[in-house]
Amino acid sequence: MGLFIFRVFIIGLLTVGGYFYPPFTLGRELGAAAAFVLGGLFVVLETRVRRAPFKVMWSASIGTMLGIIIGWMLGSIYQTVVHSHVTASFIRIFFLVIMPYIGFLVGTRKSEWLDPAHLLRFFKEEENVSRSTKILDTSVIIDGRIVDICDTAFIDGTLVVPRFILKELQLVADSPDGMKRQRGRRGLEVLDHLQKSSRVSVVVSERDFPEAGDVDSKLIECAKSLNAKIITNDFNLNKVAQLQGITVLNINELANALKPVVLPGEAMKVFILKEGKERDQGVAYLDDGTMVVVDNSRRMIGQTIDITVTSVLQTTVGKMIFGRFNEESR
Fold first, then answer.
1. Is residue 278 part of a domain?
2. pLDDT averages per 10-residue partition of the chain, 330 residues
3. Is position 53 within any domain?
4. pTM, whole model, 2 decimals?
5. Could you give the angle at which helices 2-20 and 28-51 cross, rounded to 10 degrees?
C-alpha cells in the first residue's frame, strides 16, 4: 500500500511540474497531461524492472550502452560519406535509435551472450576455452555414484550445477513423501561432498532458460551455451541430448561397461541367495549387482558354490548370467 501511495505521489509531482513548467513549449494543460503520461510510463517500467532478475537488468543495460556506442560510430561514419546534411542527420538518428533497441533486445532475450564469463571466453587461449565442463542433472546427483567416480580422478574439469537443478533438488528434499524426501537430502549431501572434494571444481550456474520450459530442456540449452557435456543416468534425457549433438556421459552405461566379461564355459564362485523362478534354480548376485541364475542349486541356498557359466544374456537393464552347479565339484 505504501509503495502505491509513493507511486501516486511521484506521478502527481511530475504532473504539477508539467503544469508549471510545460515541456516542448506546450500549454499548461497539455504540459500537465504529457507529464502525467510520462510518469505513468516510468511507473510501468519500474514495475517491470522490479520483477526482472539482476542478470537480465545488467545485460539489458550493457546491451543498450553498446548499442548507443555502435549507433554513434555508424552514424558518424555515414555522416562523413554523405554530403546531404538532412540525410546524414536522419541516418545518424536512425542508428542512435535502432542500435540501442537491438542491444536492449539482445540483453533481455539472450542475457547469457553478455555474461562476463561468456565474453571472456573470446580472450582466453584455446586450451582454456576447450577445458572440459560437465553439467550434473538431478538424477545423477541423487544416484550418488558420481562421488566415487570423482574421488578416483576419472573425471576432471569443472562440474556445473545450474540453479534450476538446485531448486528441483530442494523441492524433492522438501517433499511430503518420505522416500522422495530421503532421496532429495541424499542429493544435497552428495553436492556437499563434491564441493569439499579436491579432485573436482563445482560451480553453481545462475543461467536460466525460462522459454525452454521443463528442466531437461533447460539442461540441454545450458549445455549448448556452455559447450559442455551432460552427466546423467536418465535414459530419455540421454537420447534427446544426443539427438541435438550434445555429448552425454551416462553413469549406467559406464557401470555396464566396467562389469567383468564372463564367457560360457568359465568357472566361478557365487553365493546362492534365493530360489529362482524355474524348478531347482537358485539365484546369486555378483559384487556389481549382476544376477546369476544357477540350475540345480535350489538346495544350496545360503552356501557358496562353484558353477560353470552356460550363457550370458544382455538385457536393457544389464547382463544376466546363467550357470550350472556341478555336484561332482563338491
1. yes
2. 75 83 79 84 73 70 85 80 72 81 77 59 44 84 88 83 89 88 89 81 84 85 88 89 89 79 87 89 86 89 91 77 78
3. yes
4. 0.51
5. 150
